[in-house]
User: Which sequence fits this backbone?
Protein backbone atom coordinates (compact mmCIF):
# COMPACT_ATOMS: atom_id res chain seq x y z
CA UNK A 1 0.00 0.00 0.00
CA UNK A 2 1.21 3.55 -0.86
CA UNK A 3 0.15 6.77 0.88
CA UNK A 4 0.59 10.21 -0.71
CA UNK A 5 0.76 13.65 0.89
CA UNK A 6 -2.02 16.27 0.46
CA UNK A 7 0.11 18.50 -1.77
CA UNK A 8 1.01 15.51 -3.89
CA UNK A 9 -2.69 14.64 -4.36
CA UNK A 10 -3.54 18.21 -5.44
CA UNK A 11 -0.69 18.21 -7.94
CA UNK A 12 -1.76 14.89 -9.38
CA UNK A 13 -5.37 16.11 -9.79
CA UNK A 14 -4.19 19.26 -11.57
CA UNK A 15 -2.02 17.28 -13.92
CA UNK A 16 -4.79 14.79 -14.63
CA UNK A 17 -7.22 17.61 -15.55
CA UNK A 18 -4.58 19.11 -17.87
CA UNK A 19 -3.98 15.79 -19.53
CA UNK A 20 -0.35 15.57 -18.49
CA UNK A 21 1.11 12.13 -17.95
CA UNK A 22 1.42 11.15 -14.34
CA UNK A 23 4.90 10.52 -13.06
CA UNK A 24 5.42 8.96 -9.63
CA UNK A 25 8.57 10.96 -9.09
CA UNK A 26 6.76 13.98 -7.72
CA UNK A 27 4.72 11.99 -5.25
CA UNK A 28 5.83 11.53 -1.66
CA UNK A 29 5.45 7.85 -0.85
CA UNK A 30 5.86 5.79 2.33
CA UNK A 31 5.65 2.02 2.27
CA UNK A 32 3.72 0.52 5.14
CA UNK A 33 6.05 -2.47 5.03
CA UNK A 34 9.10 -0.32 5.79
CA UNK A 35 10.78 -1.56 8.99
CA UNK A 36 13.34 0.79 10.46
CA UNK A 37 14.40 -1.64 13.19
CA UNK A 38 17.87 -3.14 12.68
CA UNK A 39 17.90 -6.67 11.43
CA UNK A 40 19.85 -9.21 13.51
CA UNK A 41 23.09 -10.09 11.75
CA UNK A 42 23.38 -13.49 10.20
CA UNK A 43 25.95 -15.72 11.95
CA UNK A 44 29.34 -15.64 10.33
CA UNK A 45 32.12 -18.17 10.26
CA UNK A 46 32.75 -19.44 13.81
CA UNK A 47 36.35 -20.46 14.60
CA UNK A 48 36.79 -24.10 15.47
CA UNK A 49 38.37 -24.93 18.82
CA UNK A 50 42.09 -25.62 18.75
CA UNK A 51 43.12 -29.25 18.98
CA UNK A 52 46.69 -28.22 19.80
CA UNK A 53 45.60 -26.34 22.91
CA UNK A 54 43.41 -29.29 23.88
CA UNK A 55 46.31 -31.71 23.48
CA UNK A 56 48.61 -29.51 25.59
CA UNK A 57 46.07 -29.15 28.40
CA UNK A 58 45.34 -32.89 28.33
CA UNK A 59 49.05 -33.71 28.48
CA UNK A 60 49.54 -31.57 31.59
CA UNK A 61 46.47 -33.09 33.20
CA UNK A 62 47.95 -36.52 32.51
CA UNK A 63 51.22 -35.40 34.10
CA UNK A 64 49.31 -34.28 37.20
CA UNK A 65 47.63 -37.68 37.35
CA UNK A 66 50.99 -39.47 37.14
CA UNK A 67 52.37 -37.40 40.03
CA UNK A 68 49.22 -38.12 42.04
CA UNK A 69 49.82 -41.83 41.52
CA UNK A 70 53.37 -41.31 42.72
CA UNK A 71 51.97 -39.63 45.86
CA UNK A 72 49.66 -42.61 46.36
CA UNK A 73 52.67 -44.91 46.19
CA UNK A 74 54.55 -42.75 48.69
CA UNK A 75 51.60 -42.81 51.08
CA UNK A 76 51.36 -46.58 50.71
CA UNK A 77 55.00 -46.95 51.68
CA UNK A 78 54.50 -44.88 54.83
CA UNK A 79 51.43 -46.91 55.73
CA UNK A 80 53.25 -50.19 55.08
CA UNK A 81 56.08 -49.22 57.39
CA UNK A 82 53.65 -48.57 60.21
CA UNK A 83 51.48 -51.62 59.67
CA UNK A 84 54.30 -54.01 58.79
CA UNK A 85 55.53 -56.87 60.89
CA UNK A 86 58.22 -54.71 62.44
CA UNK A 87 55.96 -51.70 62.78
CA UNK A 88 56.90 -48.10 62.17
CA UNK A 89 58.15 -47.66 65.76
CA UNK A 90 60.82 -50.30 65.34
CA UNK A 91 61.78 -49.39 61.78
CA UNK A 92 65.23 -48.06 61.10
CA UNK A 93 65.55 -44.32 60.89
CA UNK A 94 66.75 -44.43 57.25
CA UNK A 95 63.52 -46.22 56.26
CA UNK A 96 61.44 -43.57 57.98
CA UNK A 97 63.41 -40.75 56.39
CA UNK A 98 63.23 -42.36 52.93
CA UNK A 99 59.47 -42.86 53.13
CA UNK A 100 58.76 -39.30 54.18
CA UNK A 101 61.25 -37.87 51.67
CA UNK A 102 59.48 -39.77 48.91
CA UNK A 103 56.13 -38.26 49.83
CA UNK A 104 57.59 -34.75 50.14
CA UNK A 105 59.17 -35.13 46.71
CA UNK A 106 55.79 -36.08 45.28
CA UNK A 107 54.31 -32.94 46.82
CA UNK A 108 57.04 -30.76 45.29
CA UNK A 109 56.53 -32.28 41.85
CA UNK A 110 52.79 -31.79 42.19
CA UNK A 111 53.20 -28.06 42.86
CA UNK A 112 55.62 -27.68 39.93
CA UNK A 113 53.28 -29.34 37.43
CA UNK A 114 49.96 -28.15 38.84
CA UNK A 115 50.62 -24.43 38.33
CA UNK A 116 51.25 -24.54 34.54
CA UNK A 117 48.45 -27.10 34.19
CA UNK A 118 45.98 -24.78 35.91
CA UNK A 119 47.06 -21.80 33.79
CA UNK A 120 46.82 -23.71 30.52
CA UNK A 121 43.45 -25.20 31.43
CA UNK A 122 42.04 -21.74 32.18
CA UNK A 123 43.41 -20.51 28.84
CA UNK A 124 41.67 -23.40 27.08
CA UNK A 125 38.51 -22.68 29.08
CA UNK A 126 38.52 -19.02 28.00
CA UNK A 127 39.15 -19.90 24.35
CA UNK A 128 36.29 -22.38 24.44
CA UNK A 129 34.02 -19.68 25.84
CA UNK A 130 34.95 -17.46 22.94
CA UNK A 131 34.42 -20.30 20.47
CA UNK A 132 31.04 -21.39 21.81
CA UNK A 133 29.65 -17.88 22.34
CA UNK A 134 28.63 -17.26 18.70
CA UNK A 135 26.94 -20.67 18.48
CA UNK A 136 24.17 -19.72 20.93
CA UNK A 137 24.62 -16.26 22.52
CA UNK A 138 21.30 -16.54 24.34
CA UNK A 139 22.50 -19.59 26.29
CA UNK A 140 25.08 -17.63 28.31
CA UNK A 141 24.19 -15.99 31.58
CA UNK A 142 27.55 -14.23 32.01
CA UNK A 143 29.92 -12.33 29.74
CA UNK A 144 32.99 -13.94 28.13
CA UNK A 145 35.32 -12.31 30.67
CA UNK A 146 33.90 -14.56 33.39
CA UNK A 147 35.57 -17.56 31.73
CA UNK A 148 38.75 -16.29 33.43
CA UNK A 149 37.35 -14.15 36.22
CA UNK A 150 35.17 -16.93 37.60
CA UNK A 151 38.29 -18.83 38.70
CA UNK A 152 39.73 -15.84 40.56
CA UNK A 153 36.83 -14.88 42.84
CA UNK A 154 37.32 -16.45 46.30
CA UNK A 155 34.50 -18.77 47.43
CA UNK A 156 32.47 -17.96 44.30
CA UNK A 157 34.97 -19.98 42.24
CA UNK A 158 33.33 -23.06 43.71
CA UNK A 159 30.27 -22.36 41.51
CA UNK A 160 30.99 -19.76 38.81
CA UNK A 161 33.27 -21.85 36.53
CA UNK A 162 30.72 -24.66 36.64
CA UNK A 163 28.05 -22.16 35.57
CA UNK A 164 30.15 -21.11 32.57
CA UNK A 165 30.89 -24.74 31.69
CA UNK A 166 27.19 -25.65 31.67
CA UNK A 167 26.46 -22.70 29.38
CA UNK A 168 29.26 -23.70 26.99
CA UNK A 169 28.05 -27.28 26.91
CA UNK A 170 24.52 -26.16 26.08
CA UNK A 171 25.73 -23.75 23.38
CA UNK A 172 27.81 -26.47 21.70
CA UNK A 173 24.88 -28.90 21.65
CA UNK A 174 24.07 -29.62 17.99
CA UNK A 175 20.70 -28.65 16.58
CA UNK A 176 18.60 -31.41 15.03
CA UNK A 177 16.19 -31.13 12.12
CA UNK A 178 13.34 -28.75 12.85
CA UNK A 179 15.42 -26.59 15.16
CA UNK A 180 14.96 -28.85 18.18
CA UNK A 181 18.22 -29.47 20.06
CA UNK A 182 19.56 -32.93 20.70
CA UNK A 183 19.31 -34.15 24.26
CA UNK A 184 23.02 -34.32 24.95
CA UNK A 185 23.67 -35.56 28.50
CA UNK A 186 25.37 -33.15 30.87
CA UNK A 187 26.92 -35.82 33.08
CA UNK A 188 30.51 -35.13 31.86
CA UNK A 189 30.18 -31.58 33.21
CA UNK A 190 28.64 -32.75 36.49
CA UNK A 191 31.25 -35.50 36.96
CA UNK A 192 34.22 -33.27 36.21
CA UNK A 193 33.12 -30.44 38.48
CA UNK A 194 32.04 -32.71 41.32
CA UNK A 195 35.38 -34.54 41.32
CA UNK A 196 37.33 -31.30 40.97
CA UNK A 197 35.65 -29.61 43.94
CA UNK A 198 35.87 -32.77 46.05
CA UNK A 199 39.57 -33.25 45.32
CA UNK A 200 40.32 -29.58 45.99
CA UNK A 201 38.55 -29.59 49.36
CA UNK A 202 39.51 -33.08 50.51
CA UNK A 203 42.95 -33.51 49.00
CA UNK A 204 44.12 -29.93 48.83
CA UNK A 205 42.99 -29.02 52.32
CA UNK A 206 41.83 -31.82 54.63
CA UNK A 207 44.24 -34.65 53.77
CA UNK A 208 47.25 -32.36 53.59
CA UNK A 209 46.45 -30.71 56.91
CA UNK A 210 46.06 -34.14 58.53
CA UNK A 211 49.53 -35.12 57.35
CA UNK A 212 51.15 -31.83 58.38
CA UNK A 213 49.55 -31.96 61.85
CA UNK A 214 50.39 -35.62 62.52
CA UNK A 215 52.56 -36.02 65.61
CA UNK A 216 52.14 -39.64 66.72
CA UNK A 217 52.61 -42.86 64.73
CA UNK A 218 48.89 -43.51 64.74
CA UNK A 219 48.23 -40.05 63.35
CA UNK A 220 50.85 -40.51 60.62
CA UNK A 221 49.30 -43.83 59.65
CA UNK A 222 45.82 -42.30 59.43
CA UNK A 223 47.17 -39.34 57.47
CA UNK A 224 48.79 -41.72 54.99
CA UNK A 225 45.39 -43.28 54.33
CA UNK A 226 43.93 -39.86 53.61
CA UNK A 227 46.80 -38.94 51.29
CA UNK A 228 46.28 -42.15 49.31
CA UNK A 229 42.53 -41.53 49.04
CA UNK A 230 43.05 -37.92 47.97
CA UNK A 231 45.56 -39.02 45.34
CA UNK A 232 43.09 -41.47 43.84
CA UNK A 233 40.41 -38.78 43.87
CA UNK A 234 42.70 -36.32 42.10
CA UNK A 235 43.55 -38.89 39.43
CA UNK A 236 39.84 -39.38 38.81
CA UNK A 237 39.34 -35.59 38.65
CA UNK A 238 42.12 -35.22 36.09
CA UNK A 239 40.64 -38.00 33.94
CA UNK A 240 37.18 -36.42 34.15
CA UNK A 241 38.65 -33.03 33.15
CA UNK A 242 40.26 -34.56 30.06
CA UNK A 243 37.00 -36.29 29.12
CA UNK A 244 35.05 -33.05 29.55
CA UNK A 245 37.55 -31.05 27.48
CA UNK A 246 37.68 -33.60 24.65
CA UNK A 247 33.89 -33.90 24.45
CA UNK A 248 33.28 -30.15 24.53
CA UNK A 249 35.95 -29.49 21.91
CA UNK A 250 34.49 -32.13 19.60
CA UNK A 251 30.98 -30.73 20.02
CA UNK A 252 32.11 -27.18 19.29
CA UNK A 253 34.09 -28.19 16.20
CA UNK A 254 31.19 -30.22 14.82
CA UNK A 255 28.62 -27.47 15.31
CA UNK A 256 30.96 -24.76 13.97
CA UNK A 257 31.38 -26.78 10.76
CA UNK A 258 27.64 -26.84 10.05
CA UNK A 259 25.31 -24.25 8.55
CA UNK A 260 24.68 -21.42 9.20
CA UNK A 261 27.97 -21.00 11.05
CA UNK A 262 30.12 -22.29 8.23
CA UNK A 263 30.57 -19.59 5.61
CA UNK A 264 33.76 -20.23 3.69
CA UNK A 265 37.02 -21.59 5.09
CA UNK A 266 36.82 -22.42 8.76
CA UNK A 267 39.35 -20.64 10.97
CA UNK A 268 40.75 -22.27 14.04
CA UNK A 269 41.17 -20.62 17.44
CA UNK A 270 44.78 -20.91 18.42
Assistant:
Amino acid sequence: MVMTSASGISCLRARCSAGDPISPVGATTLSLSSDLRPRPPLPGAVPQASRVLLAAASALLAAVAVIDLFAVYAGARIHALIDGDEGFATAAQPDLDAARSLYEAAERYRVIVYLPCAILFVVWFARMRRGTGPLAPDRFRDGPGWAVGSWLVPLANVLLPYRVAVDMWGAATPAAAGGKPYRVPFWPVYLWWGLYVSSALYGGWYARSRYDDARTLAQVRDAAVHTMASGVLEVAAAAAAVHFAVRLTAMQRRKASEEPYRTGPLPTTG
About this structure: The two ends are 53 Å apart (CA to CA). Residues 93-132 form the longest helix (40 residues).
